[in-house]
Each structure stands twice: as structure tokens, then as C-alpha cells.
């Protein structure tokens, strides 16, 4: 996946694409895969990097949604559990089975949650990840020895999916490219083109060269998540807002707070949400919050009260109480919730997706969740095909493997997340001894991964690499800042950039990373 090559494809101003997708998060990438694999001429443009927004800031779970079960939303749970099973089958190098334990402190909690999770198992059916069961106090402590013991009676264990969100997004971009789609990051849409009141394309600017492009299409899909209303107002300045954004914050702790392979799930917090403490990449993620917000920004920051909330709840369930000094990184993402206009609490708004077609033919997809991106894309393309009057062709994404698919990725050790790309990456590292050198003693990331990310994964900035091609920023912000100069040096050499670019990249990255501390 090479950006320069992709860029040459849009330079023919007479070309008319079947489908232009605006937005390179989970939903937009899913739409690109679906459209291209059906044989439609597909172009995706993303204003910054793939998955730079919400799609790289999740709780790292591919799940049916235990909370939606509590709300009685069985249709959403059923759909998500089915999609969870399909994703495990199609991307086993990035999606895995994770055991969760609900610790029980009240006499009624074990039986109550046990029954609910048996229903969860039943709804999963053949797509299940494993049966839930009751645990004694002894068994609970064996699996999560650092859980708070005071008043502990036992627990319930169940299974769900875990993944690396940004890595999956990059592999999805590669999958779409392999199906024939043209994928461009750092290509910002500034206006829509209309012919006789019907949308017929977009005007986009390449943020690297500042060149503008008029890009024509039979249909334009707006898959920009929390920014969907901004694109809709390009179409109709009077359009009513669809999005009621909500912020979810997470903190990252050292592995010592939750050793072992099991996660903790707290069924109900003070604000009515489910809380998770999850082992991930040899660290622990605690999240999440649900905070209504007014402003949608590219780089949301956790609020002090969100950090306090997460620390307080983590202290209730962990024997060792974490403090602010223990937080290695803190990050936030914005949920593009679809508002019906009447809800006051964002936690009460449905996580189901919605597809809207405007009078001028703009197709907008928003809402939903990571787990159901494939079904969201399939639904969106069904509407887009009708708007563009394209030849109807069935979706094939249920059976389509995601780039990197490998049934036994564990054989690649530290490069397991690269799946089938791992052997080629290892060959690259063997070319130069320096490529095998770790970028930091506290991280396993090596120099050769920078070269790989630039050559094959369209990494264009230090942030692209440290935040999304690898997860250093999310896992330990301070360590990632110490890695930045080496990454900038390697990228500058590979991209042919000068010292000014390199110095700017280091400065910009360190300023960004400060927000994660």
C-alpha cells in the first residue's frame, strides 16, 4: 500500500468513480472493502490518518455488548455476537478470545449475573467463544489474584473478543486496496460538487502538497463518524444534527495491577456504564466513561474528572489502588451516537447504526460500534448502489479474510500482530542489523518496523507510527516521547524529508503526547 502510487490514480480529472467514501475509520474502511470487493470503482479519502479518530481509541473489545443485554436490546446483541464470530474467523491474527470475570461481592450477584451471561451464551449460538460458568472465591482469586478480596464471594467467568483497533484498521485499508480500492490518507474534503442539485463528487486537498482535486463519483458516502454533521452541512447548511457525541476515556496501568490473562468486568458503575480492566499488550487498560460533549475535535483529551472516576472505580476492585502517578497513558475517543433529539444521557442512546440519504443523494452512515462495522458497511452499500443506480452485486465480506490473515500467528512471536506479513517483515529486518534494534528498552518495537510502516502501511508522520502502526503512545506516553527522535530520523530518511521536517515532527509529537500524560 503506497501513497504515491495511489495518488497517481486521482490525477485524471475526467475519471468518474462509482463510489467515493469520505472517512477512513472503521466504518469508512468497511465500506471501501465492501464496495471494492463487489467490483465497484472505489476511492476513499481521509482527512488525516486511517483510524486517527474514534476507531483507534476504543476499549479494544470485539463484543456483543453485555450492557445492551441489560437494556433489553437483544437485536443489537445478536447482530454483534454474530459479527464478533465472523471477525474472529476473518482476522485471527488481531482478534482473540479473552476471558472476563465478574467479581461477586453481594450474595445475589453471582446467580444474577450468571443467569444473564448464560443468556449471552445462548444468543451467541454457534458463534460463541466459550461457555460462562460460576466461580468460587478460590477460583476467582486464582484467575485474578489482584482483585479486591474484602467481601469477595466468588465470580462469574464469560468470554468475549479482544483486538488491536488501529492495527485492524490498517489491515482493512490494505484489504480494500487489494480488492482494487484507491485509499488516500491526508486528503481532506473541503466541499461537495453538485450537478442539478445532485451530489456528483467532492473537492479535496492533499494536505502534504496542498494540491486541490475535483473528484467525480456516482455516489458519495459520508462515513466520518463524529464529523458526519459537518459533511452533511456542506450538502445542506440547514440540515438538522444527527450526532450527539459522547466521550469515552481510558487509563493505562502497568501489568502488575492485573497480572494473568483474565479481564475484570464491572457490570454497573456510578454513571450506569460497564467498566473494564483489561490486559492488553502486556499492560492494563481501564475504561470507559460516558461524558456528553459539545465540541468534536480530532484530538480529544480525557477530563480530570474522568481520570478521577476511573481511578476511583479501579481502586474498588483492585487490591492495589492506582494513583495518578501510576497512569502511563490516558486517552479519549468520541462516540458518534445517533440522537433522536430527546435523550438527556448519552449512556441511554442506542448504539445501533443509521443510514440516511439526503435529497441530493449524500449517503451518511453513523452510529454503531467497531464490532458491527462489516454489517454497517453492507447496509450502507445497499443504499449507495440504489442512489447511484449501479448494477446490483452481492456483498462477499462475510467470507473475506482481512489482510494479514493467518491461522497460527503466534508462531511469529513479537510480530504476531502482522500475521502473514510477519515473514516479509522479518526478511526486511535481516537486511540491516540496525533494523533489529529496539527503539526503547521498555518496548519491543524495533527500527525495522518503522521502515515497514512507511513502505507498506502509508505511515506519513511520527504520530502515525507511534500511535497507530504501533501502540507506543497509547501504552506509555513518556516512553513514546523518548522514541520519537529515532522514529523521525528513520522516517525522514525513508520519505526523503529534510531536517526541518524532522525537527517539526519531533516537536509536534511531543506536544501531542503531553496530552496523554
If you had to describe this structure to a student in words, what would you say it looks like?
The chain has 517 residues and is α/β, with parallel strands linked by helices. It folds into three domains: 170 residues, 3-Layer(bba) Sandwich (FAD/NAD(P)-binding domain); 165 residues, D-Amino Acid Oxidase, subunit A, domain 2 (D-Amino Acid Oxidase, Chain A, domain 2, 2-Layer Sandwich), CATH 3.30.9; 106 residues, Alpha-glycerophosphate oxidase, cap domain (Helicase, Ruva Protein, domain 3, Orthogonal Bundle). A hairpin with an 8-residue loop joins strand 14 and strand 15. 52% of the residues are buried.
Main attributes of the structure:
Helicase, Ruva Protein, domain 3, 517 residues, D-Amino Acid Oxidase, Chain A, domain 2, 22% strand, FAD/NAD(P)-binding domain, 3 domains, alpha/beta, ten-stranded mixed beta sheet, 35% helix, six-stranded mixed beta sheet
